[in-house]
Inverse folding.
């Protein structure tokens, strides 16, 4: 009997980034189709294949794509009902999502390990316009995702960030305009607001030149 593959709701949830084309979303959708097709082939060849891990991976990818791409509502829709959610207030979360989108944040899911009964630990490659400005490879950050019934229960670990570049930008700003930087950016490990992204974009080229000199 041929297997029946049913796409969960989150596979068909539109993912859009404000101010960006939908090209990347189409590529993600095509990748999902490819995964399901490959799974179907594998089932036919081997007689059995557990799709749970692939579905969990795609759920995490969809959440990361939405959260760091500026689509708070899609990211929130992938989470479990309100009574199971953990994390910052919605206002702060929306600000963080806007901050990441303004900096052009991108993510790539790397290796994942299942931690029964319902947790997946993954390495995620993260970069934004600061990486592009100084031609630095993405930073790799480890996060854990609690998953149950096709929804994310929690995300454990800090928001993705390149700590080295963030520290460099802070050092640059504190030398030249500490008051302006302090007014725009918050000294908290898991939160930044859109004003901080605006500040970083405004001084991006000057910081990049300074960073290259500091790096030697």
């Amino acid at each position: 009997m041929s297997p029946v593959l049913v796409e969960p709701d989150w596979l068909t949830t539109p993912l859009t980034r404000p101010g960006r084309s939908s090209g990347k979303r189409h590529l993600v959708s095509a990748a999902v189709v490819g995964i399901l097709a490959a799974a179907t082939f594998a089932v036919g060849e081997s007689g059995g294949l557990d799709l749970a891990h692939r579905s969990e991976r795609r759920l995490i990818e969809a959440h990361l794509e939405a959260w760091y791409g500026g689509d708070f509502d899609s990211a929130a829709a992938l989470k479990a009902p309100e009574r199971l959610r953990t994390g910052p207030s919605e206002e702060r979360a929306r600000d963080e999502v806007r901050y990441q989108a303004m900096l052009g944040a991108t993510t790539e899911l790397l290796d994942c390990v299942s931690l029964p009964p319902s947790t997946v630990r993954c390495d995620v490659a993260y970069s934004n316009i600061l990486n592009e400005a100084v031609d630095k490879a993405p930073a790799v950050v480890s996060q854990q995702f609690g998953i149950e019934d096709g929804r994310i229960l929690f995300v454990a670990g800090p928001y993705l960030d390149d700590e080295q570049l963030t520290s460099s930008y802070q050092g640059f700003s504190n030398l030249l305009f500490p008051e302006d930087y302090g007014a725009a950016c918050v000294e908290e490990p898991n939160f930044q607001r859109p004003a901080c992204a605006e500040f970083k974009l405004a001084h991006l080229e000057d910081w990049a030149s300074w960073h290259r000199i500091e790096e030697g």
Notes: The first helix runs from residue 23 to 46. Strands lie at 106-115, 119-127, 139-148, 151-156. Confidence is low (pLDDT under 50) at residues 1-51.
